[in-house]
């Protein structure tokens, strides 16, 4: 499958001179693979300039110098605590080489008296004399060109020195074959980019600090190659999904009109726009796969219901799948009353639905008597059979694998899929992680929602916070108290939550409840239920407060150690108190001193409630690797592209990929053939297999 021209790059690093079994294992750990191409993707992080080569009399102390000098004598130490010293000179002055951990034989062998040597290292002055402690390099005069150069510094792992890695890297670079140009030549020339092979060579041989920057021509070129491979691969998958036969669904609108008449509010213009996009997808003869992003409380559920009713109007069924029982029940509580009024039957199926109830639901589902089924992972089970499933909604998709998403749609008859998330995802990550989907966004809050008053306080003000909380609870409000993420070196998150719970219980007695991740699902549900009903007024929780938990009466949240949370996570937590139309308050407490990043995070939280802006800022502050608080499965990890620096290149690659497939859908043109090589180079083989099939 892989083109022969790439074989040298996919050979094992063990084929390089000096790479034995131990070095191979170390390389594998450092690079995430032991192919030569893994070495090439490992770019330098710094450089040491050894080109400063003065005469000894002119050498500046504190600088790295490369000098040529004659060895005059070895001065043996009188005691073990003293260093071994070697006197050297040129025709202007003398210098001492200092060796604290001395191996006399090897020092004498490297520096025979009377010989001329090239020495490179940092010089310093001690008691008025020039010294070079532990020279980095000792060579013969003929080694001068290699030593008096710019030395590349790589990120390393224990057991692998920079010198060793540098030697392997030099060999790896000689294996790069002349490859066809896959970039648009006019665009590459306009950007002033070198060829791929030249970009690799320049990136691994920086001559000044500018060459290490993300915006150097060589690094930009390599980043764009990687981003184009990513976007082209996703565009190919998307093109294939788009071509999958679907069903044209266009209901007569009778059910949807009734729902809209009964709503106590009007749909926002954002909701109307998104529904227009979804209806157009449903009407098309191809299968729909669309991602709907909307901040907490932006009205995704009503959009999902309207789309499901479009399918129901056509005589088909719809399903909505949520990651937890609490969320599934919440959807039922929102949707069922509205559907009951218009004669649409909605049922809930979770792992807890057992015995007779389960049998009745499954029978009614198979006969088509249930139009909308809401559930958890239980919907995947084999005995769950629909009469005619045409529309699937997947809520909080990052909790489900792609295969689960598809296995539910396979229960349907060419079912359309709408994926929803309340986690605002930066546009860059939408492109790289969800590029196989169409994309809609609800960026407008329903009218009447009041902003959250967010305050930032040092932890020593907690007693005042508790006093204010007491007043709030007495006035009938409900509140969350979120305990910190705890660093592993201390104690567990659970211990922190239990400790806080015990303290608050002394003040508020039976009004306090506790939920955490180690609890059994049914115990957690029971506490949440009591909080929703108002039996508990204050809920102490670890970050387990589920995405989407709906308690409109909760209007106060206290987050301890807010400096330990990521921006996206703080925003998600704050969303829990944006459910009703009452004014709400979020108090973020921190323990000083704050790092610059933590201070900026807390300031952003205080100033903004725009989830999409916050997501973009989160990406800038924490970099692309670790978005949404945890390393989410499905997000591309880039080796050469840096999402905080190369965002603009990603947008260009996205457009470029679309254009390529419009003009050359089978990648048959000369550039198309070269792009196939690019896909293999960045190991997008699955895409190519998909493409061929």
Question: Topology, pairings included?
Answer:
Blueprint: H1 21-31, H2 36-40, E1 46-49, E2 64-75, E3 84-89, E4 94-99, H3 104-110, E5 116-122, E6 124-126, E7 129-133, E8 137-139, H4 144-147, E9 150-153, H5 162-174, H6 185-191, H7 196-204, H8 217-243, H9 254-262, H10 269-283, E10 289-294, H11 300-313, E11 317-321, H12 325-341, E12 346-349, H13 355-367, E13 372-375, E14 389-395, H14 402-410, E15 416-421, H15 427-433, E16 438-442, E17 452-458, H16 462-474, E18 478-482, H17 493-508, E19 512-515, H18 521-533, E20 538-541, E21 554-559, H19 567-574, E22 584-590, H20 596-607, H21 611-622, H22 647-663, H23 670-681, H24 685-692
Parallel strand pairs: 4-7, 10-15, 10-16, 11-13, 11-14, 12-13, 14-15, 17-22, 18-20, 18-21, 19-20, 21-22
Antiparallel strand pairs: 1-9, 2-3, 2-5, 3-4, 5-8, 6-7
Helix pairs in contact: 7-8, 8-22, 8-24, 9-11, 10-11, 20-21
What spatial form do the alpha-carbon principal axes imply?
globular
Task: Report the span from N to C terminus.
Answer: 13 Å
Nearest-integer average pLDDT: 88
- Strand fraction equals 15-25%
Q: Structural class of the secondary elements?
A: alpha/beta
Tell me the total number of β-strands: 22
Biggest sheet descriptor: 7 strands, mixed
Alpha plus pi helix count: 24
Radius of gyration: 32 Å
Percent in helix: 40-55%
- Which strands sit side by side, in order, in the main sheet? 6-7-4-3-2-5-8
Low-confidence stretches: 624-636
């Amino acid at each position: 499958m892989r083109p022969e021209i790439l074989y040298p790059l996919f050979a094992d690093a063990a084929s390089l001179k000096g790479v034995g079994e131990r070095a191979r294992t170390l390389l594998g750990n450092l690079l995430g693979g032991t192919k030569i191409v893994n070495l090439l993707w490992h770019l330098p992080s710094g450089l040491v300039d050894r080109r400063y080569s003065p005469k000894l009399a002119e050498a500046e102390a504190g600088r790295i110098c490369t000098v040529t000098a004659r060895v005059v004598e070895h001065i043996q130490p009188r005691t073990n605590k003293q260093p071994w010293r070697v006197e050297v000179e040129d025709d202007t002055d003398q210098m001492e080489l200092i060796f604290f951990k001395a191996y006399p034989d090897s020092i004498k062998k490297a520096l025979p008296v009377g010989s001329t040597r090239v020495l490179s290292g940092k010089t310093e002055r001690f008691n008025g004399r020039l010294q070079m402690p532990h020279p980095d390099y000792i060579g013969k005069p003929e080694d001068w060109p290699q030593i008096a150069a710019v030395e590349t510094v790589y990120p390393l792992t224990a057991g692998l020195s920079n010198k060793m890695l540098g030697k392997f890297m030099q060999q790896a670079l000689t294996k790069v074959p002349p490859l066809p140009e896959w970039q648009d030549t006019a665009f590459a020339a306009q950007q002033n980019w070198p060829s791929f092979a030249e970009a690799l060579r320049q990136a691994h041989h920086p001559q000044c600090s500018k060459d290490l920057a993300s915006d150097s021509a060589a690094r930009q070129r390599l980043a764009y190659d990687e981003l184009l491979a990513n976007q082209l691969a996703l565009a190919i998958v998307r093109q294939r999904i788009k071509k999958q036969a679907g069903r044209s669904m266009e209901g007569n609108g009778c059910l949807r009109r009734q729902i809209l008449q009964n709503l106590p509010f009007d749909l926002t213009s954002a909701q109307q726009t998104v529904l227009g996009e979804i209806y157009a997808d449903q009407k098309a003869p191809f299968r729909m796969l669309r991602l709907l992003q909307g901040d907490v409380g932006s009205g995704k559920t009503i959009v999902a219901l309207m789309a499901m009713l479009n399918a129901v109007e056509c005589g088909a069924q719809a399903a909505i799948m949520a990651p937890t029982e609490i969320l599934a029940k919440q959807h039922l509580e929102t949707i069922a009353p509205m559907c009951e009024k218009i004669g649409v039957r909605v049922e809930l199926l979770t792992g807890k639905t057992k015995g007779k109830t389960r049998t009745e639901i499954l029978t009614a589902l198979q006969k088509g008597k249930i139009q909308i089924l809401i559930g958890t992972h239980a919907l995947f089970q084999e005995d769950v059979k629909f009469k005619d499933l045409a529309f699937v909604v997947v809520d909080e998709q990052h909790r489900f694998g792609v295969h689960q998403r598809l296995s539910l749609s396979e229960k349907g008859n060419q079912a359309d899929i709408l994926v929803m998330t309340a986690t605002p995802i930066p546009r860059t990550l939408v492109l790289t992680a969800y590029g196989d989907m169409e994309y809609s966004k609800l960026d407008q809050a329903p009218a009447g929602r009041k902003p959250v008053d967010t305050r930032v306080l040092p932890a020593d003000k907690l007693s005042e916070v508790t006093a204010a909380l007491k007043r709030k609870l007495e006035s009938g409000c409900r509140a969350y108290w979120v305990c910190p993420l705890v660093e592993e070196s201390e104690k567990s998150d659970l211990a922190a939550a239990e400790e806080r719970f015990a303290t608050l219980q002394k003040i508020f007695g039976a009004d306090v409840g506790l939920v955490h991740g180690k609890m059994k699902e049914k115990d957690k549900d029971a506490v949440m239920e009591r909080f929703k009903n108002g039996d508990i007024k204050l809920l102490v929780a670890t970050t387990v407060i589920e995405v989407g938990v709906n308690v409109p009466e909760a209007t106060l949240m206290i987050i301890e150690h807010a400096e330990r949370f990521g921006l996206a996570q703080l925003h998600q937590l704050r969303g829990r108190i944006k459910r009703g139309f009452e004014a709400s308050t979020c108090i973020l407490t921190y323990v000083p001193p704050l790092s610059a990043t933590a201070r900026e995070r807390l300031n952003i939280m205080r100033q903004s409630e725009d989830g999409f802006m916050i997501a973009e800022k989160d990406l800038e502050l924490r970099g692309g690797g670790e978005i949404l608080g945890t390393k989410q499965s499905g997000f591309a990890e880039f080796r050469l592209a840096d999402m905080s620096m190369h965002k603009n290149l990603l947008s260009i690659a996205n457009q470029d990929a679309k254009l390529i497939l419009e003009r050359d859908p089978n990648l048959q043109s000369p550039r198309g053939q070269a792009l196939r090589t690019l896909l293999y180079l960045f190991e997008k083989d699955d895409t190519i297999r998909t493409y061929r099939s």
